[in-house]
Write a structure and sequence with these properties.
4 strands; four-stranded mixed beta sheet; alpha/beta
Length: 367
């Protein structure tokens, strides 16, 4: 009870300070003070390390293992020998969910890092580097480390623009690993628990409340459904639900996009070309006969359906003056089969009104 209350109090203090700075910055600021106060109180109370371990304030003491032990001859074989490979690969669903979750998490980290640093990051290069680092770390019995958007954001908020902090962190981590110092033996449990509590509360608030400001209602509903699915049915179901919802929402949003790039007639467009007077007079009289409509993007059924309504309304507005509609598809990069069907129906509807539908720069898929 006392450990839980201490962790909750430290987590609340981190959140209060983190509201002004950052949760990780608050933890770094509180770490020396919390350690000093903890061991000062333990010293005045006459507590020993064994007593703090038995009371649950410290972790079980572990012997330090220098990093050189892991690179000794036969060390890798000794660590991989007891591994039950059949048991590890028996849970295919768990492995698939972990792989998809890790991939999505890495992509989201790259996006957040780009937003925090203002730099462009190559997604493929980041994924290759993360995969190579994970494979090499597994061979020596370690755990792969990936870029932390939280640390980058905290450093940006502190005004750090160089790699000095990252280099110092790598050097400190390498020295601790090389020395084999068991730091977990001296770090109080409530201190680490407070960090998990503070991060958990901050992430819960971020994705269940603050996300409303930058995620639309369908996306927020999908996020809430994934969280509920993870709580009720597990991680695999949440990943599968999220993938299906993402595909559905992306298709829905793209189908609602406007593919119209321009709509011109000879009355609204005057190219820099020299024509005889009789040709100019003819174009002035019949300038509304030819309508040039440019399209862009990928043509879905929804976009072509809206285009059809737009063209038919233009035909009603111009009446018998409209004779030809030319669709310029040069800026498009694909078309859905249902969109081709809708274009054929539009051609029949225009033909019934005495208007010819022509297509320029059509792909082989349409032909």
């Amino acid at each position: 009870g006392a450990q839980l209350a201490s962790a909750a109090g430290l987590a609340l203090l981190q959140l209060v300070i983190g509201a002004k700075l950052h949760t990780l910055s608050a933890f770094v600021l509180l770490l020396p003070a919390a350690l000093t106060i903890f061991y000062a109180i333990a010293g005045f109370a006459g507590c020993t390390l064994d007593g703090l371990v038995s009371d649950g304030w410290l972790f079980e003491a572990e012997a330090g293992v220098p990093l050189s032990v892991y690179f000794a001859p036969g060390a890798a074989t000794g660590r991989l020998g007891p591994v039950s490979w059949s048991a590890m690969f028996s849970d295919v669903n768990g492995l698939f969910a972990s792989a998809v979750t890790s991939l999505a998490a890495m992509l989201l980290k790259v996006v957040v890092l780009e937003s925090a640093s203002g730099a462009y990051l190559d997604m493929n290069a980041e994924l290759r580097a993360a995969g190579s680092a994970s494979a090499l770390a597994a061979l020596v019995g370690g755990v792969a480390a990936h870029p932390s958007p939280d640390y980058v954001t905290a450093l940006r908020q502190a005004g750090v623009r160089t790699r000095a902090v990252g280099v110092a962190t790598i050097a400190l981590t390498a020295s601790v690993l090389a020395s084999g110092l068991p730091l977990m033996n001296v770090l109080p449990r409530p201190l680490l628990g407070s960090l998990l509590m503070a991060n958990g509360v901050e992430l819960t608030k971020l994705w269940l409340w603050d996300a409303r400001r930058w995620i639309d209602r369908p996306g927020f509903a999908m996020l809430f459904a994934m969280i509920c699915s993870a709580l009720l049915f597990g991680q695999t179901a949440a990943v599968l639900l999220g993938a299906l919802c993402a595909v559905f929402l992306s298709h829905l949003r793209l189908s609602r996009a406007n593919a119209l790039k321009y709509h011109l007639t000879s009355r609204s467009c005057h190219p820099p070309a020299s024509r005889p007077h009789h040709a100019q007079a003819f174009l002035r009289r019949h300038g509304g006969a030819i309508h040039l409509i440019g399209l862009e993007g990928f043509l879905y059924g929804g976009t072509v359906s809206r285009l059809s309504r737009y063209v038919l309304r233009a035909s009603e507005r111009h009446g018998r003056e409209m004779r030809f509609v030319l669709l310029d598809l040069q800026a498009t990069h694909g078309i859905e089969p249902s969109a081709c069907t809708l274009l054929r129906r539009l051609r029949r509807q225009l033909k019934a009104r005495g208007v010819s539908l022509l297509v320029a720069a059509a792909s082989s898929q349409m032909v």
